[in-house]
C-alpha cells in the first residue's frame, strides 16, 4: 500500500469511524466463519480417511447413496455396481454415505479393496472382472459384446437422461414428493435437492444439444428408445441369452428404478406400464441378483453380502 492510499484510509476512518469499525468486524467475522468451515471440512476428511484405513482387508467395500424403500438404490450407477457384485458372486460390505468428495472421482459409487480405491461404475466393473477373474461374459460372441455395449450406452445416456427429464424438468413435483415421503426430507430441503439435480441435468442436456429440442420431439425420441429396449428383451430371458451378463446390470438398474418411479404415473411413460417383457425381465433379474430384496430395501446400515446364501444383516 502506497503512502497516498494509507492517508486516504486514515482520513476515511476519521470521518466515518463507526462504518469502518462495522466493516472491519464483518470482515473478521467472515474470515472466522470461513476458517471454521475449513477446519470442519478438514476434520471430516481426516476422520473419513481414518475410517477407510481401518476397514477390513480381503473384501470389497462398496460406498453408495442411501437405499430407498423400493430396492437397492434409486441412483442408477450405485444400483448397477451392486447388481454386478451380486451377479458375479463377489463378497462385499456395503456402506451408505452422503458425501461423495471422499470418492476418487468425487462421485458415488466407489469401491475400496485392499487399500485400492476405484471410482466410476464402468471402471469399477472392469477392475472387479480382472481382479476376481469374473466369467459372466466369457461365452459372449463379438457380436453380443457389441450389442451389449450399444445397449449399455443407450441406457446410461438417452434413457437415463430421458427419465431424469421427466422427473426433474417436466414433473419435478414427482421427485420432490418421493424425497419428502420416502427419504423424510422437509419440503424446502426436497425442493433444493431437486433444483440442484435439475440444474446439473440441464447443463448435461445443453452440452449434448438435447435441451434445445422441442419437448414433444424429445419425448418422441425417448419413448422410441424405450420401445427399442422392449423389443430387445423379448428375444431371451436376459439381454444377451439365457443367463445374465455384466451388461444386464445397468439395464436392470434403470428398469427397476424407472418402473418404481412411474407407479401411479403410468401415463408419463406408458410403455413401462404395459410391457410384459419389462415386467418379466425385472422379476427374473430380481430373483437372480436380489432374492433378499424385501429385507434390504430401506436398510441403511452397513451389511455384508455373502454369495449363494444372500446372508446379510443390518448391524
TrEMBL record:
Per UniProt, residues of the Thioredoxin-like fold domain are 77-165
Q: What InterPro entries does its record include? A: Glutathione-S-Trfase_C_sf, Glutathione_S-Trfase, Mito_Protein_Transport_Metaxin, Thioredoxin-like_fold, Thioredoxin-like_sf
Q: Pfam families recorded for this chain? A: GST_N_4
Which superkingdom, per the lineage? Answer: Eukaryota
The protein's GO terms of the molecular function aspect are: transferase activity
Query: GO CC terms on record?
Result: cytoplasm
| Annotated PANTHER family | FAILED AXON CONNECTIONS-RELATED, METAXIN RELATED
Q: What is the protein name given in its UniProt record? A: Glutathione S-transferase, C-terminal domain containing protein, putative
What organism is the protein native to?
Answer: Trypanosoma equiperdum
Amino acid at each position: 500500500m502506497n503512502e497516498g492510499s494509507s492517508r486516504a484510509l486514515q482520513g476515511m476512518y476519521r470521518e466515518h469511524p463507526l462504518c469502518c469499525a462495522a466493516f472491519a468486524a464483518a470482515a473478521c467475522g467472515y474470515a472466522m466463519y470461513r476458517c471454521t468451515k475449513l477446519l470442519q471440512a478438514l476434520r471430516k476428511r481426516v476422520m473419513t480417511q481414518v475410517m477407510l484405513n481401518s476397514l477390513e482387508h480381503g473384501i470389497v467395500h462398496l460406498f453408495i447413496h442411501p437405499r430407498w424403500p423400493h430396492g437397492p438404490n434409486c441412483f442408477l450407477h450405485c444400483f448397477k455396481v451392486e447388481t454386478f457384485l451380486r451377479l458375479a458372486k463377489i463378497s462385499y460390505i456395503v456402506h451408505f454415505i452422503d458425501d461423495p468428495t471422499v470418492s476418487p472421482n468425487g462421485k458415488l459409487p466407489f469401491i475400496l479393496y485392499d487399500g485400492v480405491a476405484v471410482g466410476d461404475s464402468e471402471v469399477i466393473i472392469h477392475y472387479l472382472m480382472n481382479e476376481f477373474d469374473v466369467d459372466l461374459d466369457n461365452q459372449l460372441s463379438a457380436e453380443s459384446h457389441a450389442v451389449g455395449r450399444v445397449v449399455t450406452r443407450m441406457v446410461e445416456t438417452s434413457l437415463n437422461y430421458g427419465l431424469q427429464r421427466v422427473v426433474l424438468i417436466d414433473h419435478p413435483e414427482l421427485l420432490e414428493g418421493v424425497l419428502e415421503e420416502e427419504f423424510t426430507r422437509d419440503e424446502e430441503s426436497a425442493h433444493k435437492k431437486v433444483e440442484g439435480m435439475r440444474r446439473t441435468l440441464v447443463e448435461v442436456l445443453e452440452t449434448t444439444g438435447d435441451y434445445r429440442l422441442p419437448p414433444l420431439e424429445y419425448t418422441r425420441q425417448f419413448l422410441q428408445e424405450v420401445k427399442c429396449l422392449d423389443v430387445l428383451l423379448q428375444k431371451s430371458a436376459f439381454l444377451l441369452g439365457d443367463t445374465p451378463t455384466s451388461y444386464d446390470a445397468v439395464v436392470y438398474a434403470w428398469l427397476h428404478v424407472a418402473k418404481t418411479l412411474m407407479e401411479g404415473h403410468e401415463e408419463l411413460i406408458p410403455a413401462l406400464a404395459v410391457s410384459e417383457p419389462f415386467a418379466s425381465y425385472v422379476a427374473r433379474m430380481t430373483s437372480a441378483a436380489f432374492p433378499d430384496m424385501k429385507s434390504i430395501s430401506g436398510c441403511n446400515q452397513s451389511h455384508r453380502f455373502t454369495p449363494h446364501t444372500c446372508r446379510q444383516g443390518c448391524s
